């Protein structure tokens, strides 16, 4: 990818002109790419990711603390929803990070889940690069545009809640009943069990999921049931 592409990205998507464009290029450089280009590429994005993660959490925490009077537990759940992999990966996709990613040939053929994680990591790395090159206020402005702008939608959807808590709220409000979880099956040796759990509302199966523990299976079942209620709405 030509350097000009990164300069254009910085101007059009972030709204700044980087003083050191190499910082931004490094933010898009996955460890696997470095392994294939050891003679020409000296650094991957993990250190920038480490820095950007801290800046992102500080900006989000500052925003929530300054704008809401809710208890610590609620603020923590809101923050988790804003900075989780799915949220920042979606922001990276929206801002068209993917064409700029520098990946090995193998990583380019990776799973959707692996790609989502790479996008999330690159978002944090870009925040780190922006902080180093332009300062805290520039990083804050980008995070506000890319992440904090989604907060109203997260509140409205209830996606910040634990899946089981969210499901219970929906089931009680729409069906007047509390979800009941039942183990539908288990397989594998004791040290490597896989549980299949179903969640029922008024005796009707609303979702099922698998997990290495009953609790994990319940969480997956609740997530599946939430899809049912969202479709129903």
Q: What is the CATH architecture annotation of the largest domain?
A: Orthogonal Bundle
Low-pLDDT runs: none
- Structural class of the helix and strand makeup? mainly alpha
Largest sheet: 3 strands, antiparallel
CATH evolutionary superfamily of the largest domain: Ribonuclease III domain
Chain oligomer state: single chain
> What are the secondary-structure elements, in order, as H or E?
HHHHHHHHHHHEEEH
Overall helicity: 55-70%
Number of strands: 3
Rg on CA atoms, Å? 21 Å
Q: Which strands sit side by side, in order, in the main sheet?
A: 1-2-3
Shape: globular
Number of separate helices: 12
Give a brief description.
With 233 residues, this protein is mainly α.
Explain what the structure shows.
The structure is a single chain. With 233 residues, the chain is mostly helical. Helices cover 63% and strands 10% of the residues. The chain has two domains: 3-157, Ribonuclease III domain (Ribonuclease iii, N-terminal Endonuclease Domain, Chain A, Orthogonal Bundle), CATH 1.10.1520; 163-232, Double Stranded RNA Binding Domain. A three-stranded antiparallel β-sheet has the order 1-2-3, with helices on one face.
List keywords for this structure.
single chain; 233 residues; mainly alpha; Ribonuclease iii, N-terminal Endonuclease Domain, Chain A; Double Stranded RNA Binding Domain; 2 domains; 3-stranded antiparallel beta sheet; 12 helices; 3 strands; globular
């Amino acid at each position: 990818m030509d350097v000009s592409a990164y300069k254009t990205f910085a101007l059009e998507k972030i709204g700044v002109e980087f003083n050191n464009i190499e910082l931004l290029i490094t933010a898009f450089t996955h460890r696997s790419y470095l392994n294939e280009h050891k003679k020409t590429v000296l650094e991957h994005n993990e250190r920038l990711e480490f820095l950007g993660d801290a800046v992102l959490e500080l900006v989000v925490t500052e925003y929530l603390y300054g704008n809401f009077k809710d208890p610590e537990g609620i603020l923590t759940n809101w923050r988790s929803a804003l900075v989780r992999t799915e949220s920042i990966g979606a922001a990276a996709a929206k801002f068209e990070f993917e064409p700029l990613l520098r990946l090995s040939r193998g990583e380019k053929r990776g799973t959707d889940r692996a790609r989502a994680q790479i996008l999330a990591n690159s978002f944090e790395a870009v925040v780190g690069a922006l902080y180093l090159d332009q300062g805290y206020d520039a990083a804050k402005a980008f995070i506000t545009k890319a992440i904090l702008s989604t907060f109203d939608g997260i509140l409205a959807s209830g996606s910040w809640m634990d899946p089981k808590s969210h499901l219970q709220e929906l089931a009680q409000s729409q069906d007047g009943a509390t979800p009941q979880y039942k183990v539908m099956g288990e397989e594998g040796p004791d040290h490597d069990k896989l549980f299949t759990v179903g969640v029922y509302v008024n005796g009707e199966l609303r979702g099922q999921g698998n997990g290495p523990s009953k609790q994990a299976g319940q969480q997956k079942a609740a997530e599946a049931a939430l899809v049912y209620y969202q479709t129903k709405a």
